[in-house]
Amino acid sequence: MLEQKQVIVIGGGAAGFFAALSLKKHHPNCNVIILEKSAKVLAKVKISGGGRCNVTHACFENNELSKFYPRGEKFLKKAFTQFNTESTIEWFKERNVPLEALHDQCIFPKSNSSQTIIDCFEKEAKELGVIVKIQANVKQISKLDSGKFEINTLEETYFADKVIVTIGGQPKRNGLEFLEKMGHKIIEPLPSLFTFNMPQNPICELMGNVVEKTSVKIEATKLVANGPLLVTHWGMSGPVILKLSAWGARILAEKNYHFHILVNWLNESKEEELRGQIQSLIYNQGEKKIVNLNPFPMTNRLWCFLLDKIEINKDIRWKELGKKNLNRLVNLLINDRYEISGKTTFKEEFVTAGGVSLEDIDFTTMQSKKVSGLFFAGEVLDIDGITGGFNFQAAWTTGWIAGKHCML
Known about the structure:
It is a single chain. The protein is an alpha+beta fold. It has 2 domains: 6-191 and 349-405, 3-Layer(bba) Sandwich (FAD/NAD(P)-binding domain), CATH 3.50.50.60; 194-345, no CATH class. The chain contains 13 helices and 22 strands. It has a 7-stranded antiparallel sheet with strand order 17-16-13-14-15-12-18. The chain has a 5-stranded parallel sheet with strand order 6-2-1-10-22, covered by helices on one side. A 3-stranded antiparallel sheet has the order 3-5-4. A hairpin with a 5-residue loop joins strand 13 and strand 14 (224-231). The protein is elongated, with a radius of gyration of 25 Å.
């Protein structure tokens, strides 16, 4: 009788569960154990997307999909040929979990609850015989002369034929030391998705205001992004800010999170186009007061705030604006400057740039080039996407590949 092969998956998050499920599906005779250091599995899945779980994004062309990853684009392009957005949707459909795309192309479960995804994973794991152990904090992995692995937790020692590491993004480098000791190059971890702090800036009094289409540039860099902007009680957030924080993760860290942004409140409107729009309004509706006629896609509160910022009397009529005020208004609407001093990260949902260097991984199999039999999946790698379901898609893709190829 052949000895049953055993695989240890280190980390009970999105990538860990998907790797374990893929492994049992492709290699049903393997014994698979997930070791999760905390008291709960799939914690990040539970809270993601405000408790709704943004499973993936409705981008179905692999080359385009890979462009949403500030780190990992080239490697994921190859990986997406094995498992991509379409594969994700089909995987959940086969397990009676219908998904739907919203207007912004983010894909959620139709139930609008992340618990649906968790229930699906846990049910599948139970049916396939995946063993899940919580509060099993792995401190060391050693490869023995026999070719097997010894995995030491604080409480127990496990032995495995293969190991898949899916410990997620680590806020500090010391969380990756045991992998570095095995010969892997570690890229310094840094926050990737975060909001911009603007201490004491009066715009924070407008918290809750959203402008759906804006363009924001990091001053003195080439970093520009488009999308909805949300004013918060600490500064600015929303998809446009989160995109900038992802693409600029290392640049902004080097600046110690002190920099300036330029906000175009009218998305990509140019100066000449805006002047023409305002002059047309003055010609046609010049008798109306500026405070009563806001011609732009923003709330009246924000409109009044911007007028106050450049000291334009809100009670004058449009025809009384004058050349000087017109120039100031045009410049403000397309080039509004703010000082950023610090960041706010989502502690439970943090995403990191950094991790195990992608140069050390064979993306056809997700196996380490440094240690045979050791595989990786998810954010423990130097991979991260912008907001919108891309980080979960990377977890599903790399987890599926690692599980499939682990025992080949």
